[in-house]
Design brief:
5-stranded mixed β-sheet; 33% helix; 5 helices
């Protein structure tokens, strides 16, 4: 029997998810970019027009991991896909199977919805995560790079 449980996030989980995202930002050394608050996240998860979904992982009733994801689209496959934005499990609860359980549940959701892909990004220095993903059967796409407009570069295009 698993020491954890996985379920869709509920509005009451938003503060825990925000805390875990803070932990993730610290792990990735990106706290200088973090402007997230529960008030900012809640409408995108549970407002009138949600744009993301989340799963939470609990151990002994405490939310210790999460996966935040959304639907994208593949023009080549002519099908939607599932894009995993962030997955994080607190350090003390790694190696419990929760990370693998979250990824497995997301793959199941992609299959249930007849999506053509399940994708995510990984930092090139995070060798543990890369090995973990490859052991689950994921391909790390060496020829692809993420392009991003944000901050001032994005606001230059305001109409």
């Amino acid at each position: 029997m698993n020491p954890y449980s996985i379920r869709p996030a509920e509005a009451r989980d938003v503060p825990a998810i925000v805390g875990l995202i803070g932990d993730l930002a610290e792990f990735e050394q990106l706290t200088h970019m973090l402007t997230l608050t529960a008030d900012k996240l809640e409408p995108y998860l549970f407002g009138p027009k949600p744009v993301v979904e989340a799963l939470v992982g609990e151990i002994e009733g405490e939310v210790v991991g999460f996966a935040l994801f959304f639907t994208n689209f593949s023009t080549f496959l002519a099908k939607p896909g599932l894009y995993l934005e962030d997955l994080y499990v607190r350090h003390a609860h790694r190696r419990t199977g929760l990370g693998k359980g979250l990824l497995t549940r997301l793959a199941q959701i992609a299959n249930e919805r007849d999506y053509g892909r399940f994708e995510w990004s990984v930092l090139e220095w995070n060798e543990d995560a890369i090995r973990f993903y490859e052991n689950m059967g994921a391909s790390v796409m060496p020829d692809w790079r993420i392009c991003r407009l944000s901050g001032d570069a994005l606001t230059r295009y305001k109409a």
